[in-house]
Amino acid sequence: MSDSELPEDSQGLSSGKAPLDLLAAVFEASRDPRVLQGPGIGLDAAAVEWGDRALVATSDPITFVEGNAGRLAVAVNANDIYAVGAEPEWMLATVLTPTGIEPAEIEALLTDLASACEDAGIGLIGGHTEITDAVTRTVVSCTMLGSAPTGRIIPSDGARHGDAIVQAGAAAVEGTAILGYPRLLEEPGISIAAAARALREVDGVHAMHDVTEGGIATAALELAEAAGLSPALAFDDIVWLPETLAVCEEQDLEPLGLLGSGTLLAAVSPNAIDRALTELSGAGVQASAIGRVAAGSPATLRFGGQTGPLPRFVRDEALRAFDDVRRSTQ
Questions:
Q1: b (16+ CB within 10 A) / e for 94-117
Q2: Per residue in 205-246, pLDDT tens?
Q3: How far is CA 149 from CA 47, 55, 203, in A?
Q4: What is the 3-state secondary structure (H, E, C) of 238-286?
Q5: Closest to 65 in 3D by CA, of 321, 330, 328, 327
């Protein structure tokens, strides 16, 4: 039974992304020839031909946390634009807050949004702010626009059989920050700008994908499956921060499935791996070749000399941690 086929006595869906089979059944490929990249599982942003340039657009909310929500919203939306080889330029923000919020809280959030846009060179050009009993905590949902020369878009679904999976940026930084190490939001931070700018100059980078909900395992599956392939990862080759492994051990979480903004995955031709890693190192980005994609093989994970199935995380491990906290306080 699929996630979207629920029995009559079901309590409904849990928090997290909507089931993939539900989305796939609703959204079809665009028939508009100007659309260079349309809707699809694991596709970071839409791209539309616009003269000699491509207009790139994405939309993402911040629902996990309220602290730093403005700055996080700018970062995660910009990451989607960077992941297709473009530069973010403009943003619109919808802010929904619960009733009873203090005016100073709204002012602080909007100031944070504006400041983050200014720091990133992104124009905050519109949006909507509303106080409503439809939400119990603040939700920030943004739409970001950017552009690139038409021929320079790097498709999310362009991986090829035999490509290496290159990781740029330590895994699960955002999840680790939310679960107890907030300083990581500043250093190393969760922007993939430096990584994307370095990789888009490398011939042989066939696809890039921004890691978000479901962690690096889910992102690897999405990167491969968008091209009809399967990933094979090596856990020991993945770049982890000590704080990530510590917080996951303390809270009995799986780091492979932990919220991963700040990490970029790329499908790279074998003969371009060294160049990609050199460019990333020169940009000050931690990087590693962590696996490969292939046709006709299952998704696998090598860990401690053993190889087994690569886990698929229907819900992010950070959400599971939040649920555990709620249950313990009831």
A1: bbbbeeeeeeeeeeebbebbeebb
A2: 999 999 999 999 999 999 999 999 999 999 999 999 999 999
A3: 11, 9, 16
A4: CCECHHHHHHHHHHCCCHHHCCCCCCEEEEECHHHHHHHHHHHHHCCCC
A5: 321
pLDDT digits (tens, 9 = 90+) for 43-67: 889 999 999 999 999 999 998 776 7
Task: Please calculate the CA angle 169-67-90 and round it to the nearest 5 degrees.
Answer: 65
pLDDT at residue 6, as a whole number: 38
Q: Which two tokens stand for residue 298?
A: 């299952």
State how far the Cα of 33 lies from the Cα of 150, in Å rounded to an integer.
13
Query: 60, exposed or middle or buried, with CB in 10 Å at 0-12, 13-18, 19+?
Result: buried
- 180 pLDDT tier (thresholds 50, 70, 90): very high
Q: For the chain, which domains are there?
A: 28-152 (3.30.1330.10), 164-327 (3.90.650.10)
Contact yes or no for 240/233 (Cβ under 8 A):
no
Residue type, 232: A
Tokens of 105: 């809280």
- With 0-12 CB in 10 A as exposed, 13-18 as middle and 19+ as buried, what is 130? exposed
Specify the DSSP element, H or E, that contains 111: helix 103-120
The four Cα atoms 245, 249, 253, 256 give a dihedral, to 10 degrees, of 30
